[in-house]
Design goal:
The structure holds two protein chains of two kinds. Chain A is globular and about 45 Å long. Chain A has helices at 20-31, 64-72, 82-87, 104-112; strands spanning 5-10, 36-41, 77-81, 100-102, 116-119. Chain A is 30% helix and 20% strand. By secondary structure, chain A is an alpha/beta fold. By secondary structure, chain B is of the alpha/beta class. A five-stranded parallel beta sheet of chain B has the order 4-3-2-1-5. Classes of the chains: A alpha/beta, B alpha/beta.
């Protein structure tokens, strides 16, 4: 079977009502099946890649360990929605992963070239 | 004197905005859980109210109060704060 182009769109924060960490686990699981995986962080999803998270203080596990596993699983195509980051006062220095910043036009192009889009 | 509690991100909900429409000058704001994302950026900079935030919720999310717009408190201090105000209202 030909590998599919899968885009995971993450739009929720790490420790709110929505279980943000499970998204990252799902991405790792999908990568084990040899799919072409890309990940876009937008809207509240931007907070997941904020550096210096100390989630142990609120009795949670940090998402940063899951993010660090991306490299081992060869998930290297990570994208940040520029508009979402700017709205939240987040600059390239504030994020914990090596990601490419995309404007709206580039995000449109990214979305339209996928076989499947998985939204979380 | 009301303590208004915000526990959801102001970037995806209107809770903070709705709260600010009815808040009185003698009231105070408390940010906790994902509500602490309000401290990122300039959202709170010009507000004339007393503002409190749970410090651990900030640190957990990799944030700090760089604009020093809020008094950072722990959970014990939060209990004191809630007890101090005759009314509290959680916006959710």
């Amino acid at each position: 079977m030909q590998p599919k182009n899968l885009l995971f769109v993450i739009r929720h924060s790490s420790y709110g009502l929505f279980p943000g960490r499970e998204i990252l686990d799902a991405i790792l699981a999908a990568s084990a099946y040899g799919q072409n995986i890309q990940v876009l962080f937008m809207d509240e999803g931007i907070w997941q890649i904020k550096s210096d998270q100390q989630a142990n203080l609120i009795a949670q596990k940090s998402v940063e360990k899951n993010l660090a596993a991306f490299e081992i699983y060869e998930i290297e195509e990570l994208f940040v929605c520029e508009r979402s980051a700017l709205e939240r006062g987040i600059s390239a220095d504030d994020i914990s992963v090596d990601a490419q910043w995309l404007n709206t036009a580039s995000i449109q192009a990214l979305l339209s070239k996928q076989d499947q889009i998985l939204s979380f | 004197m009301i303590l208004h509690i915000i526990n959801r991100s102001p970037f995806t909900t209107n809770h903070l905005k709705n709260c600010l429409e009815v808040i009185s000058p003698e009231d105070a704001l408390l940010f906790m859980d994902d509500g602490v994302y309000a401290l990122q950026g300039d959202l709170l900079k010009t507000l004339p109210f007393k503002i409190h935030a749970i410090e651990m919720d900030l640190q957990a999310r990799g944030l700090n109060d760089s604009n020093s717009s809020a008094t950072l408190i722990n959970y014990a201090q939060m209990v004191e704060l809630v007890a101090k105000y005759p009314l509290s209202k959680t916006w959710f």
